[in-house]
Amino acid sequence: MNNSRQFGGSPFSNNNSEIMCRICHEGESKEELFSFCKCSGTVAMAHRSCLEKWLSTANSSACEICKFNFQTSRRPRPILDWFRNTDSSQDTNNLIGDLVCFIVLSPLTIVSCYLCVVGASHYMVKRGVSWEASGLIVLSVILATVYCVWLGATVRHHVRTMKKWQESHQSVELISVRNTIINLEENNNDSTNNSMRTDLQSI
Fold it and tell me: Which of 63, 75, 96, 187 could crosslink 68 through cysteines, CB 3.0-4.6 Å?
């Protein structure tokens, strides 16, 4: 005997067909089937894990058919998923390019600033304060400032990009599933009783 919970209508296309998940089209051998919304017929039943995956992919908390709003909780997906996501491949390539620039520019900036400071010290020891020493100090300050501005802007851009991706790609989990199913069952029973009363009154 199949112990699937079905509310709001039968999930059978006919009496001989097997109950299947409307998302993965598999039966209860994988996971228990439930009716989480007001859909009926062949689209009534679904696995909880399949429905959560579907809602996460669609970034939605409502049934796309009957528009029933599920009680859900959301949590950001790991940053590693951002690297694996094909939609963000351009952003990933930009990040890799900026990392290469960081690896190359960081030692160059440090060495250049160091040489400027050493050269300025050398001129100051020999000639005191001179235009050569002042020029080297100004050059080192400009190099350090440009590098810091570039680094700050780059980090800020990529952090914003990742946060924006996380906001639109969240893991959706169903909560209060038992209460939702009970409420759907009660609503279905109320609808059935009202329909029976209407039929009796019309006789």
Answer: 63
> What token pair was written down for 4?
């699937």
**What is the residue range of 42's domain?**
1-70
Which run of H or E residues covers position 124?
helix 89-127
Q: Are residues 151 and 101 in the same domain?
A: yes
pLDDT at 106: 95
Q: Is the dihedral of CA 152, 169, 77, 80 positive or negative?
A: negative
As a whole number, mean pLDDT of residues 65-85 equals: 80
Query: Beta partners for 72?
Result: 174
Q: Helix, strand or coil for residue 74? A: strand
Q: What is the CATH number of the domain that holds 45?
A: 3.30.40.10
- 62 burial via Cβ count (<10 Å: 0-12, 13-18, 19+): middle
